[in-house]
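Risk register update: the risk of archive-format incompatibility is retired. Evidence:
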Amino acid sequence: MIDLNECVEKGLIRKTVASKEQALAGLKKARVLLKEAEEDFEDERFNSTVVVAYLAILNAARAVLFRDGYRERSHACVARYLEAKYAGKISQDCIDLLDYFRETRHEVQYESDYFAEAEAAKQIAEFAGKFIKLVEELLK
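Archived output:
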């Protein structure tokens, strides 16, 4: 697995101007996407739930990077950044779930024979809600 140093060396995480505005916009988008994922779940569109809930998680995570003055070019590197820079504030279990749901979204999006089931969709949507709240607290 790639680590944060490799992400930086490969340009997959790079320094930029810190932006509270972009961070807040990322959180707003995360909340909108979570609502859409919840609606997808209610309508039993489980593949859509997984993809959209993951995007909510990613936008929330990217909000932290924007606030800190970083941009990403790799979803895996977002997790490595949070793992390295927010140890103690974000649990390893949370990072592991972020990685797990990143892989689940990848399967839904790119594997033609993989279809999300209700339980997986429910789990990712619930995690997205908790993760967004965690990021909101971190950004206060």
